[in-house]
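A protein record pairs a chain with a discrete description of its three-dimensional fold. The following entry can be read in just this way.
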Amino acid sequence: MDVGNTWGILGALDQEIALLLAQMSVVRTVTALGTTFHFGQLCGKRVILACCGVGKVNAAACATWLCFVGGCDYVIHVGIAGAVGDGLKTLDVVVSRELCFHDQDPVMLKYFPKRAIFQADDTLLAWCRQACAQPGVLQGAWREGRIATGDQYVTDHATRTRIIKTCHPDCVEMEGAAVAHVAYAANKPCLVIRTMSDCADDTTPITYDDFLERAANQSARLLLALLKEAH
């Protein structure tokens, strides 16, 4: 991979891109699809950064814009998620080895892209492993795992249990697999980085507010470290 290429970076919430935007040297902005796309430099890399908004459609629309209008070569989504994997706790990190939709009917597998799982890019994963090994980057533990995406804010035990039974993910969120779907269709390397802000259960309304900013900044710091490792 050529570091002279362009990195498309998305977060769903303002808090998820705040640290990145603060450290980015922005040279211009473009408004499209209700979103502001910031063009500039970050850690010596050419970057387009955007807050795409919450949910699969918002994420897919912005990822498509990054790939086909912005001309991005790599696509990364950073932010927060709810922990459902064994042993995961708040401020732990899950890096996508694979992504799926937890609200997708099996009939969808008859149609393009005819797959239930989207794999992350091996080279991006390798750089992320190196970044995770750097002292001071992570506050908690990390793992490579499966991320499940759906248009649902999971805050109850019954929904959590259903998703675990059907998808066996490490965490749940609302954008990652949609971005991976677009990247797959566009043949672009993709990675999703998630820090746990809650446990996707009855305690979520309390812990989410307490950990949102800290979890969002954790994912952003990991991405900054990844960009420094990329070569």
